Amino acid sequence: EVQLVESGGALVQPGGSLRLSCAASGFTISNSAMYWVRQAPGKGLEWVSSISSSGTTNYADSVKGRCTISRDDAKNTLYLHMKSMRPEDTAIYYCVKDGTRGQGTQVMVSS
Prior knowledge:
Layout: E1 3-7, E2 11-12, E3 18-25, E4 34-39, E5 45-51, E6 57-59, E7 67-72, E8 77-82, E9 91-97, E10 100-101, E11 105-109
Parallel strand pairs: 2-11
Antiparallel strand pairs: 1-3, 3-8, 4-5, 4-9, 5-6, 7-8, 9-10, 9-11
């Protein structure tokens, strides 16, 4: 059974940094395309970043240059490093595999 457990969300000040984690079980993340998506209050899901099984990464324009997606194959864990954070980054962040997502982790950017 595919399970994804996100963590690392927090309240951060504008300009701050955060690392989100997604612990995966039931499959091997290095063999899968993985995604981070987010949902801001009152809005729909927004794709943030992805990493292919070969390690190719892509980013939404809204986070390009401020986010880095990575994975630790030994820990079977996906990460999203965020810096220079903005209030508009406030959202629940989910990791996704083949349409399955975890419970999400809340990120709030506010002074």
